[in-house]
């Protein structure tokens, strides 16, 4: 009886130790990885100076996983209307955030833009992009942020060659819920012919775009309203100035 009791105690102790080890392991994994995402409804999908939905509404989803080393992976999906045979944009992100100090953060990112079901008679519309960003916070007040980013595509959409984008943005928190922001970008393409293929004019090979907006965070929702414009080619309806409103649910 004593022998059986001792053996049972050893067995129970082993099980408890295993469960504790599993719980510790699960906690470590939970602490190391953070999964987040959002679902957004927008009056229009507008990106870098042009509408992606011809001024019509869009539904977008983001799923992201961050590791405590700063490495992250993200997927993005949205409906589109670009006349390329596809009604969906599906992007993959892989990046790394590195804190230089309490107020400076460096970001390295790879982006793979895909259009499932695209018209294969067109030049390749999918493209890859690499970026480097620097974010500085707490400059004028707590939680404000100034961003500088550089983007490079070795072969931009429709096989138009190299594309460079320089971007600067600033967000100023009015209070714990409200904030205002602005962003400006300069986009340079490989040649006049490349610009003409993309924007139907061979008069230049660069353009700038900008936006000014305000956002409101309430519990797990974000309300965003901004005005945007660009000098791409004013003869194009998809490059008109616009006002975009979005509602996002964060999880």
UniProtKB/TrEMBL annotation:
One matching Pfam family: Gcw_chp
Stored InterPro entries:
CHP02001
- Judging by the UniProt lineage, the source's domain of life is Bacteria
NCBIfam families named among the record's database cross-references:
gcw_chp
Name this polypeptide is given: Porin domain-containing protein
Q: Which organism is it from?
A: Acinetobacter bereziniae NIPH 3
């Amino acid at each position: 009886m004593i022998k059986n009791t001792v053996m049972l105690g050893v067995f129970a102790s082993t099980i408890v130790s295993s469960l504790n080890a599993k719980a510790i392991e699960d906690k470590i994994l939970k602490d190391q990885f953070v999964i987040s995402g959002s679902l957004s409804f927008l009056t229009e999908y507008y990106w870098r100076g042009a509408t992606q939905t011809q001024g019509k509404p869009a539904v977008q989803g983001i799923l992201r996983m961050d590791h405590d080393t700063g490495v992250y992976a993200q997927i993005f999906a949205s409906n589109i209307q670009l006349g390329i045979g596809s009604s969906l944009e599906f992007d993959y992100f892989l990046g790394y955030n590195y804190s230089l100090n309490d107020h400076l953060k460096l970001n390295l990112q790879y982006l793979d833009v895909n259009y499932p079901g695209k018209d294969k008679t067109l030049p390749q519309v999918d493209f890859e992009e690499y970026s480097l960003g620097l974010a500085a916070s707490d400059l004028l007040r707590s939680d404000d942020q100034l961003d500088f980013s550089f983007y490079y595509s070795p072969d931009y959409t429709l096989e138009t060659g190299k594309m460079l984008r320089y971007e600067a943005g600033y967000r100023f928190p009015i209070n714990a819920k409200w904030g205002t922001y602005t962003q400006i970008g300069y986009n340079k393409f490989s040649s006049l012919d490349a610009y003409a293929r993309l924007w139907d004019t061979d008069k230049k090979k660069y353009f700038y775009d900008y936006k000014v907006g305000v956002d409101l965070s309430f519990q797990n929702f974000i309300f965003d309203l901004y005005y945007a414009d660009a000098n791409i080619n004013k003869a194009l309806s998809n490059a008109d100035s616009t006002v975009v409103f979005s509602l996002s649910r964060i999880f």
